[in-house]
Every structure is written in C-alpha cells, then in structure tokens.
Design goal:
It is a single chain. The chain is flat. Among the domains are: about 45 residues, no CATH class; about 130 residues, no CATH class; about 130 residues, no CATH class; about 30 residues, no CATH class. The relative contact order is 0.06. The protein contains 21 helices and 16 strands. With about 525 residues, the protein is an alpha+beta fold. The chain has a 4-stranded antiparallel β-sheet with strand order 3-6-5-4. Helix 12 packs antiparallel against helix 13 and helix 17 packs across helix 18.
C-alpha cells in the first residue's frame, strides 16, 4: 500500500516504487528502489523545491500569560482536592503543588465562595475546640460559632441547602464537601432541614495532654497509647524514673527482644504469635542476657497440646512425612520383596508420586481386589487420593460400528463407566479407612505425628488487643465507642494489618473513621 500523497505526487518519490520481497517470497508491503547513478542528496534538494506554502510563526504571548495567571502555587499546608478563595476568584488544588483557577462567574462564583467560607469556618471551629483544654478559647469559640450560624443562614436563604443538585454539582469535588452536608439533616417525612449540633455546642473532645504520672505502669499505658510502643525517653519525662528503674518496675509487663538490642515490647505483644519459634530464638540470645523469665512466660503462654485423639490425619496432608506413606504401602499393599516402593512429595508443585511399583505389584491380587480394581490398581488409586484427583473411570464412546467416536479436534469422546467408578470409589473408602486405623497404631509414629501437628498448627497464640487506654482526640463527644470497637482500633494501630470482619450493625463505619 502507498500513501495517497505519493500516488498524487509521484515527483516526491525518490526512486521507483516496487513490491517488497522477503526470504520466503513476496509480501503485501512496498519498497522504494533507488535510481541507479543518482545521489539521494541531489534528489532531495530537487524534491523540496516542489513544496509550496507559507509558514507563519504565531506567538501566543497573551494566551500564555493568561494561562500562567490561571495556575498558581498552592499555599503551604493546603489540602489536596479542595477549593480555595484567592482575590475574589476560586481556585482548585488537585494532587500536585499547584492550584488552577475555576471558570466561574456571577451566581456560581458567589455560591462557591460562600461554601468555601463555611467549610473553612467549620474547620476553624473544630480546631479551636481541640485546643481548648484549658478553656482559654471559650470566647473565641462563641464568636466563631455565631459566625458559622450567620453565614449558614445567609447561604441557605439565598442558595438553598448543600445537598441540592445545584450546590452538590458545584462543590462535590471538594474533599470537605462532606463537612458541609453534615451540617444539616433533612426529615424524610416533612422535608424540613435541621442544623447539626455544632451550631449549638462543642462536638469534639479537646486534646488534653498528660504531662506527669506517678507510676511506671501509668507511664507505660500512656506510651502505648500515644507512641504505640515502649518509649523509655517519653516514659522518663512522664514519671521521672530512669530506664533501669522503669525496666525493674515493669518486670513481667515488658520484655526485651533477644534478637534486637535494647528493644522492649509489651507482654501482650511478646507472649503472642509463634510461641515455639520465640522459644527457639532464646537459644541464640546474646551472651549474658537472662532469658529465664522469657522462657517461663512463653511456656506458660504455649497453646494447650492437641493429642492424637483430636487429630485427623488425612492422606495427602502436606505435613505428613512421605516416609509414613511408604510404610503404609509396604504393610498394606504387600509389594514384592525386591520392590523398592517410595512415596515422594514435591513442595514446589504440591504433588505426590509413588515410585518403584513393578508391573507385578500393580497386578497383584491385593492391588486389584483388596485395595483396587482391574481398571485402577491400588497404587493408582492411592496416588489419586494423595493428590485429590478425580478417579472417575471413563471408556470411549462407540458408534454403531463399535468404533470410538471423535470430536471436532479428533479427540476420542469418553463417557463415564458408572459400574467401574463405583468400584473404585469403594476402594477409596477402604484405603482411607485402613489409613485411619493404621496411622496412630505405632507409638513412635504417633509421637512424631502429634509433635509435628502441634509444631505446624498449634504454635500460634493470637494477640488480644486492648483499646481501653486509647484517647480518641477529636472524636464527637456524643459518641462513646463500645469495647469491641476500641479493641479493633487498637488492633489497627499495633497489628500492622486489620480486617474489620464484624457483623452488620457492629459499628464498623465508626471504628474505621
């Protein structure tokens, strides 16, 4: 194919157009073959003379100046995704360090400026309430609340309420739009609006800073609440005790981590998680570190041992040693004495494989009658059980001539042989029953399996988070969190990852906020 321009202007083609050829023959592409004896430089110079037209450089200084004026640097500490009033205009800050002028005029501009003012007044009022622990701002708060009432009343009288479409369309991109809609509630029946509590009284608790406590225990509580860790410098400021005194006073309530020098954590953090792993870590504690109390506390925190009677060992369980599956095969399937049967498990693929079974082993009476069938011997069935495979027996579907039928891809069509499948399923149940009867019969094997099960599945002690000591600065004073909500907040602060899998109505929204 050739561009229409060159079809209409052959004088601009610097050579001869021809069909392109590749290694295996012609293609649909085209190529330009150079004219023998003519230099490309000379051709290009002549071709350029055929181009006629005028290029005019247009400067857009006025437009560029206007664009520069419409984009200004965002003020320090300004919020992203927010509108701002600047010299009688409205600017919007997105996710970068600049603000762009919003094209508004007339009524729209006045409404936007008024909404910015009310939003900022609400935030200023809330900040003043937070900083009023000593009541020094009582007078200022009254004035700010009066201003909020006046600006809100004036706005709603002239422009309507914040949730009306004309206002929501204008201000919905502002991150503080929810502040505005929260200022009023609408009665579903009457349609009348009522002002929120912030118009009448303080709604958030002031930020009360504790500067002194009497005991090390109180200092620890505050350290965890305010710093989310054991902070000795902060605790010393609170109670006046030095680090060594605090450590002695808080014995049993804090523990030094053996692998991290000078780092201490609370007891509820240290005595949870993988207890057996933490006991092993004590063996590598620094020389001279007394870990006797650590060991005693960890052993007391160890989950109660699960005994064999409460353990279900299924065929195919990844934690069961292949050695035991091999023993089971040798004892139950009775392969030939020359056979070297071995059950193998690949951690990489998660697959089991039974190696070493000879043709005579697979064809034995035990393999085809006691624990298997003629269609699927005991070794194939056991391997299928270990890998959770489908053991349905299928046969080719035959046509009227007794020939296998094939699909559109020439694959033989197969159908389930229900009689043979039922026979195999019966052997599956028989093998699984024999395994359950056999697995714990040997005392040594039982001991190994019980210890392994507890190591793998019963080493974790889950942490119980306590949020009773938390101070929820800035929260609505009319809201009192329940115990499970406080504990959920504590888990979010200290746990590193949290899922609020509470039932409907448990207060997840308040907890999350």
């Amino acid at each position: 194919s050739v561009n229409n321009y060159f079809v209409n202007h052959p004088e601009m083609v610097l050579g001869t157009i021809a069909e392109a050829n590749q290694k295996y023959g012609p293609t649909e592409n085209t190529q330009v073959i150079p004219i023998p004896g003519v230099e490309l430089k000379q051709q290009l110079s002549e071709a350029v003379k055929n181009i006629h037209g005028t290029y005019t450089l247009q400067t857009k200084k006025a437009e560029k100046k206007k664009e520069a004026e419409d984009i200004i640097p965002a003020p320090a500490n300004s919020r992203t995704y927010s509108y701002y009033a600047v010299s009688g205009s409205v600017y919007y800050r997105g996710d970068d360090e600049t603000m762009s002028k919003v094209k508004l005029s007339g009524d729209g501009l006045k409404r936007a400026l008024a909404m910015v003012e009310i939003r900022d007044t609400v935030r200023e009022l809330l900040d003043m309430q937070l900083d009023n622990a000593d009541h020094s701002l009582d007078g200022d708060i009254l004035e700010k609340r009066e201003k909020l009432n006046q600006t809100y009343d004036a706005f709603t009288e002239k422009y309507g309420h914040f949730d009306e479409k004309k206002n929501s369309r204008l201000f919905k991109d502002d991150d503080g739009y929810s502040f505005l809609t929260a200022l009023e509630t609408r009665d579903k029946d009457s349609g009348e609006y009522a002002k929120a509590d912030i118009f009448y009284h303080d709604t958030v608790k002031p930020n009360s800073v504790v500067e002194h406590v009497e005991t090390a225990q109180e200092a620890l509580i505050l350290s965890v609440a305010e710093k989310a860790k054991v902070d000795f410098d902060y605790m010393t400021e609170l109670c006046g005790m030095d680090k060594n005194t605090l450590i002695n006073e808080l014995e049993g309530q804090i523990y030094r981590l053996p692998q991290e020098e000078e780092k201490y954590v609370t007891a509820d953090e240290y005595l949870t998680g993988n207890i057996r792993q933490k006991l092993r870590e004590l063996n590598n504690a620094p020389i001279g570190m007394d870990v006797s109390r650590h060991r005693e506390a960890l052993e007391a925190a160890m989950p109660k041992k699960v005994e064999a009677k409460d353990i279900s060992v299924k065929l195919g369980s990844h934690w069961v040693s292949p050695e035991f599956v091999t023993q089971f095969i040798n004892e139950k399937f009775r392969p030939g004495w020359k056979s070297n049967i071995e059950a193998q498990y690949s951690k990489a693929s998660g697959k089991w494989k039974i190696e070493g079974a000879s043709k005579s082993d697979k064809g034995s009476y035990t393999a085809t009658h006691d624990f298997g069938t003629r269609r699927k011997d005991a070794y194939a069935i056991l391997e299928g059980i270990l890998n959770h495979e489908d053991l349905t027996v299928k046969d080719p579907k035959l046509d009227e001539n007794g020939e296998p039928m094939r699909d559109s891809r020439d694959n033989i069509i197969k159908v389930t042989n229900h009689e043979e499948t039922k026979a195999v399923q019966s052997m599956v149940r028989k093998i699984e029953s024999a395994w359950q009867d056999w697995i714990f019969k040997d005392p040594d094997r039982r001991t190994v399996l019980v210890d392994k099960y507890n190591e793998v599945f019963n080493s974790i002690r889950h942490r119980e988070y306590d949020g009773s000591h938390l101070n929820f600065v800035g929260m609505n004073s009319d809201i009192t969190l329940k115990e499970h909500q406080k504990n959920a907040v504590a888990r979010a602060l200290y746990g590193g990852n949290t899922m609020l899998a509470h039932c409907v109505g448990a207060g997840k929204s308040v907890t999350r906020s």
